[in-house]
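Handout, section B. The chain below has 351 residues.
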Amino acid sequence: MNIYNRLAALIDHLIWVILAAVFIFFIFQSEHFLSENNISNIFSAAAVMGILVVGQTFVLITGNFDLSSESTLGMAALLGIWLIVPGAAPHFGGDLLFNPYLSIAFILLMGAAIGYTIGCLITYGQMNNFIVTLAMLLVIRGLMLAFTEGSAVNGLNDPKADTFYWLGHQNAFIIPGVIKVSFSVIATAATFLIGHFILKHHRFGRELYAIGGNRDAAVASGINANLRVRQVYVVSGTLAALAGWMLAGRVVSVQVNLGDGFIFTVMAGAVIGGISLQGGRGTMLGALGGVLLLSVIDRGLNLMHVSVFWVKVIQGLIILLAMFIDAQRVRIRTLAQTTSVRETKENAVGS
């Protein structure tokens, strides 16, 4: 193995080194960092973002983007509770009084439908994935404003709304003095495990890597690339809706701008965790590391009482760092391949 291969392997696992270093740093910066509430908050915050990152990872591996997932999240949270609660103040719902389980099914199907629509526009319409998903983000945001007229939807003290909020706020188990684990955290962990299995051991995952690595070669080998692209957008849309349902249980009162700006954090988490923006590379476990890192940084800065203005600066720097790491990963892998080819030719000539 040449030096470039070693460097590439190091960068692929760099996220866990950074996560450990940042975790230790915040332990010494705040005596409350290891408290039960803070550790629980780290995992709870990572749960929602983690669901979005899993969906984004499937899309990124094929060499595409999904900028619309943050608005799908917001729409799912808003519409889900809007369908359940009365129209009068203080709820400002749709006065349709849906069964909460029907509302949950509806928003998950809505997420899948949004993803499928995007996939069709990209594959059948031959449209640019970046522009399509950006346009869909704006369309969904506009619809959220239109049907609520800008009002927040509140399910507080509504028994049916409490059922809808269950995934976001109900604890699965508590270890006193150590951690409170919510059902949302368990759901996110299960989603990552399923995603890891699919990418590593299932034909579907192998085909996604092939499409992202070299689409023309994948098509030539018999892979239906357009079908797979539509499928990953359905996965991303459905998971974004699931994340919206989850987040609604944490905020209770759902604003029309819920999730605004999430996509930048999601992209940063995926890329800093090793998912390549060029497609074809990355693992679900690396993406998990990226999610945990961003959640730890967010909670650590909060405990240090860092100004919200500086938090935005730090978030921007993290995104730049993610892009830098991805660029170096690509450059080093290219050098590794070039060196390997040259060494192979030299060995062939020598023999």
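Note. The mean pLDDT is 89. Compare this with the example in section A.
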